[in-house]
């Protein structure tokens, strides 16, 4: 009876622990046969109400994306492209300064593989992901896909022994079910955010087309082209008709270019590349080349033979001749439009789907519209400003903008590799120099190769110069730690810097040297990122320790830091009355081999620093969600009795009172 009593207590305790460990995502999987050697690995996820999982295409500097890691790929099979997924929702996250892509309720992942070892038998895959609601959980799922043995280059599809497959895995070769799964997931993910994103791309591309229109390669061609249509057409009506055909031809040429990019690379290929280090470095180099061209060092031109051949075709007249006239415009103006088109194509293609087509539609519409309108209403030509040095000013200004944008891509590569060569201060210093030089150029203090001599500057140029100068001055305080919210999406985060307290700041903002093992965290708070080091220091200074279970990509952790920790009363406590120990559950750095182990609580392999702190949360506090805050004494005992831990809650007064109560208990 006594043994039964203890067993019952143990069962109730374990039941309580398991109830605290959240698993908001459940998975099923199947294998779809595509050809004799190719298979689709299909993973269907169901998400609990209110939770969401982040897409594998989530931009850098945002929440953690889905990551697929194949365990036994070498010598056994090849991946055919990147895993396809259901449509995701898109929403701007002000705390990270980037768009976040996420799924709600359910989604599907499909990875196509080509078998190279006919006797591989199974494919082992680990899917790592982040799921968030009021807190965030870094979770993963192991899959074992049973693959039929391939005999003599012919696929044999025997009855599959499902006992050899992981419990959540079923084998199904019915293509219609996979298609139905994708369609179901597509219905779940609303399209409103995607439509909004496409309208944004169209608008920005339209502005790009308008900017290209105001360059020396394009603007002077407006009166020439309009004059051609008015003189060559037998009647005004014919001139207007030809002008409309000409404009539609321009639009068609650029839309076909967008279609070609989408068709060649696939709807999501460049989307995946946008998070690749080499892509960011290559695009940085391209933008520097484009900018250098705009600034007047050289011109990027297509071969003259192309233009000559197209000109000869344009002489044929009729609709075909008009089409070749439009093509001639695209070729002749390439030195000005090429860099803008290249930038727009990569930027829009990185969004995936039909974005490149929408981008080229917006760009070409802005480019074609003036040609059509002025040809239809020749009298408006008198209102056009005369060509002159201002056209080169527009071109040079675009060069400065492209040069500034280039360094965003270099910064992305540095952030991914965590090299710390291109930190926040370096980025801001370069931008200040670029925009400062642009302001001096607009004021006429700097001249470049193709500039005409000027005796005065126009009111419009003066206004732009003052705007650029004001923006330059605005960025300067960022070197000393100002948040610069207007450009928060561009520079590296404040924590990714030579000194999070700003250039010239002291170690901790008070002139005191930071304790060994500590660093500056949000708002200049001294934090430890190792439990043992933090607890040793707390014991030394006789202060309670605040265990902050957090994540680099934890959305609600950032919200707590930005909205609660930043409040003066809370910040004072965090800086003076407690020792903050921040333990990152998504830290992917591997533990030394001798420190790796198998969790006694979950049976999972603890291989990374993040695994270690997640296991600590589960073992000690029966939860796996971040943020989690625990106030402990110097022996690691909870100080708050009624509410031992707290998580995401933006109520500042509640958090402050919770901290104060723990400190009072510590002093008793």
TrEMBL record:
Residues 497-518 are annotated as: Disordered. It is found in: Membrane. Keywords: Cytochrome c-type biogenesis, Membrane, Transmembrane, Transmembrane helix. The chain crosses the membrane at residues 197-222, 243-265, 277-298, 319-341, 353-377, 389-407, 427-448, 460-480. Coiled coil: none annotated. Gene3D superfamilies: Glutaredoxin. Pfam families: DsbD_N, DsbD_TM, Thioredoxin_7. Residues 199-411 form the Cytochrome C biogenesis protein transmembrane domain. Its main location: membrane. Residues 34-144 form the Thiol:disulfide interchange protein DsbD N-terminal domain. It is a multi-pass membrane protein. This is Thioredoxin family protein. It comes from Flavobacterium cheonanense.
């Amino acid at each position: 009876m006594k043994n039964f009593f203890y067993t019952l207590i143990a069962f109730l305790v374990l039941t309580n622990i398991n109830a605290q460990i959240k698993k908001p995502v459940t998975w099923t999987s199947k294998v779809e046969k595509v050809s004799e050697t190719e298979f689709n690995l299909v993973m269907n996820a169901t998400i609990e109400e209110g939770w969401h999982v982040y897409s594998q295409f989530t931009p850098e500097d945002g929440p953690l994306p889905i990551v697929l890691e194949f365990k036994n790929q070498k010598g056994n099979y090849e991946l055919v492209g990147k895993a396809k997924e259901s449509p995701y929702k898109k929403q701007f996250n002000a705390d990270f300064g980037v768009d976040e892509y996420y799924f709600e309720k359910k989604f599907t992942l499909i990875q196509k593989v080509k078998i190279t070892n006919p006797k591989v038998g199974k494919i082992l895959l680990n899917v790592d992901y982040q799921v968030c609601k009021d807190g965030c959980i870094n979770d993963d799922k192991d899959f074992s896909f049973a693959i039929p043995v391939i005999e003599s280059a012919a696929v044999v599809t025997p009855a599959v022994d499902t006992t050899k497959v992981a419990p959540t895995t079923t084998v199904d070769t019915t293509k219609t079910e996979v298609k139905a799964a994708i369609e179901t997931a597509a219905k779940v993910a609303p399209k409103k955010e995607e439509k909004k994103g496409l309208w944004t791309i169209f608008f920005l591309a339209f502005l790009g087309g308008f900017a290209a229109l105001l360059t020396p390669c394009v603007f002077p061609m407006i009166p020439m082209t309009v004059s051609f249509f008015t003189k060559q057409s037998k009647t005004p009506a014919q001139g207007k008709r030809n002008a409309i055909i000409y404009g539609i031809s321009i639009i068609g040429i650029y839309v076909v270019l967008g279609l070609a990019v989408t068709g060649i690379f696939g709807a999501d290929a460049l989307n995946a590349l946008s998070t690749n280090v080499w892509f960011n470095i290559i695009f940085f180099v391209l933008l520097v080349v484009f900018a250098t061209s705009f600034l007047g060092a050289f011109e990027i031109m297509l071969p003259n033979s192309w233009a000559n051949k197209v000109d000869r075709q344009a002489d044929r007249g009729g609709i075909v001749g008009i089409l070749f006239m439009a093509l001639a415009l695209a070729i002749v103006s390439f030195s000005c439009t090429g860099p803008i088109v290249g930038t727009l194509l990569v930027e829009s293609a990185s969004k995936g789907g039909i974005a490149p087509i929408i981008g080229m539609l917006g760009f070409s519409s802005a480019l074609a519209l003036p040609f059509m309108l002025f040809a239809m209403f020749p009298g408006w030509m008198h209102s056009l400003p005369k060509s002159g040095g201002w056209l080169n000013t527009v071109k040079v200004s675009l060069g400065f903008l492209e040069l500034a944008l280039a360094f965003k891509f270099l910064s992305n590569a540095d952030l991914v590799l965590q090299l710390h060569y291109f930190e926040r201060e370096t980025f801001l210093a370069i931008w200040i120099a670029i925009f400062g030089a642009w302001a001096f150029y607009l004021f006429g203090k700097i001249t470049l190769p193709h500039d005409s001599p000027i005796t005065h500057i126009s009111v419009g140029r003066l206004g732009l110069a003052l705007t650029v100068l004001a923006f330059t001055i605005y960025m300067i305080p960022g070197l000393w730690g100002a948040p610069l919210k207007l450009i928060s999406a561009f520079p590296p985060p404040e924590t990714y810097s030579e000194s999070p307290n700003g250039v010239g700041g002291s170690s901790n903002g008070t002139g005191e040297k930071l304790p060994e093992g500590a660093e500056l965290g949000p708002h200049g708070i001294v934090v430890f990122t190792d439990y043992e080091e933090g607890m040793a220091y707390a014991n030394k200074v006789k202060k309670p320790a605040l265990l902050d279970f957090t994540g680099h990509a934890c959305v609600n952790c950032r919200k707590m830091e930005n909205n609660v920790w930043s409040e003066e009363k809370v910040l004072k406590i965090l800086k003076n009355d407690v020792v903050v120990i921040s333990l990152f559950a998504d830290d992917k750095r591997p533990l030394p081999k001798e420190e790796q182990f198998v969790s006694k609580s979950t049976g999972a392999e603890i291989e990374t620093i993040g695994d270690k702190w997640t296991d600590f949360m589960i073992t000690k506090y029966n939860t796996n969600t971040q943020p989690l805050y625990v106030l402990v004494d110097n022996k690691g005992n909870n100080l708050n009795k009624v509410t031992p831990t707290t998580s995401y809650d933006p109520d500042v007064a509640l958090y402050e009172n919770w901290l104060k109560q723990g400190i009072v208990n510590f002093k008793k």
